[in-house]
Known about the structure:
Blueprint: E1 2-5, E2 11-14, E3 18-22, E4 40-48, E5 52-59, E6 63-70, E7 73-77, E8 82-85, E9 90-94, E10 99-105, E11 112-119, E12 129-133, E13 145-149, E14 157-158, E15 163-170, E16 175-180, E17 184-192, E18 195-197, E19 200-202, E20 207-211, E21 214-219, E22 224-232, H1 234-238
Amino acid sequence: MLLRIPAESIYTADYGWHSGRFHFSFGDYDDPGNTHFGVLRALNEFVLQPGSGFETHPHSEMEIVSYCVQGELTHGDSMGQSGRLQSGDVQYLCAGSGITHREMNDAQDCALRFLQIWIEPETSSLTPKYDCKHFSRQSSPNKLQHVASGEDREGVINIAQDANIYSARLSNTENIVYTNWVDRQSYLVCLEGKLTVNEIKLFQHDAMKVWGEEIMNLSAPEESHFLLVEMASDSEIDG
């Protein structure tokens, strides 16, 4: 089953120095009917104004993946790790037993747009860990770029959960075929441009929930950029 989630139904808030788009309950957005999607606990899109950011703050018991859409993201944490990400780059923080970190837009002349994805880990009290990967726009055009996985794969960030994260950029008239298996579910976000999924049209900021076996033909009526999170179905998780 495919369910389009229009952009206007996704909660947004403007805090002045940054704005947020929250796909699930988070912070001052409280919706008991929209708390998660499988092990996906948060998918937040932030736009940080120049010279601003999230100063040092704590996390624990969560897998946190940040995906840079536009601008440059600067990271620093209590493990002494640091990173600088540009469009298409991914960073991973296993908060585990506890960690502090900061995510900033150090640029003085352009905004930063990025996604922060929270995934519940399979086990608790993990040792905190940081990783990042740099993915060139030209590395896999018109293909799914596997950026994070619960399986140990070369060139892919390894996370502590049975889930996968893919990104893709599609040129005009190009297409990708993606299969969602019967015991799996996926959450797709159209980040830029327009995307058609089996005749369902998605526009920038639209999302889609996918359950069960579906062969999805993703095509781009114009240049498109999207991200997809795949995981075990809710029934498999609960069972």
